Amino acid sequence: MYAIRLGDDETELRPLEPWHAEEFFAHLERGREFIGRFIDFGSKETDVDSARAMLQRYADLRAADSASLHGLWLQGKLVGGVLFLNFEAEQGRCEVGCWLEPAATGRGLVTRAMRVLLDWAIEERGIHRVEWVAASGNQSSLNVARRLGMTRDGVRREAHLHHGVRHDLEVWSVLAPEWRAARDACRSPRSIAHNDH
What is the pTM of this model? Predict the structure, then answer.
């Protein structure tokens, strides 16, 4: 199993597996209201058994090479995660997403974790187009897309009904050549000196 340090000694990116059900459910309970402002992620997981069932669904999807969950641990505590949705290696495209509990915000965890996922998808699996879809009001999520060098492709007007409100969905994407150029620019010595965050 992998555990990837995300630039410090406090944060790790690891697989989120069915055996994490109790920890995952406790995390969802801590962040339920915050996570649920714009997305339904975790809303149906109301006990440990349903949390385990969700993690098993994603484990099965990972085995089918169509989706996967990856947890973010801060100081040994599960605080959020990133995921692949609609992973279509044959077509060279996928969608990515994220969630965090409030205590983990403002640290750049999702951006750092997404860089690992994008690098893997593009360099190891040959993905050409990575999409990010978020409600227009979800500025934190849209800011991650910007930091990853994604381009706003357009808006699907009132496409997402959530808690009785219709939200516009913004579609952002990055293509493999764009990702490589942005990644290499971030790794240049001058860029690192000025943008180390």
Answer: 0.87
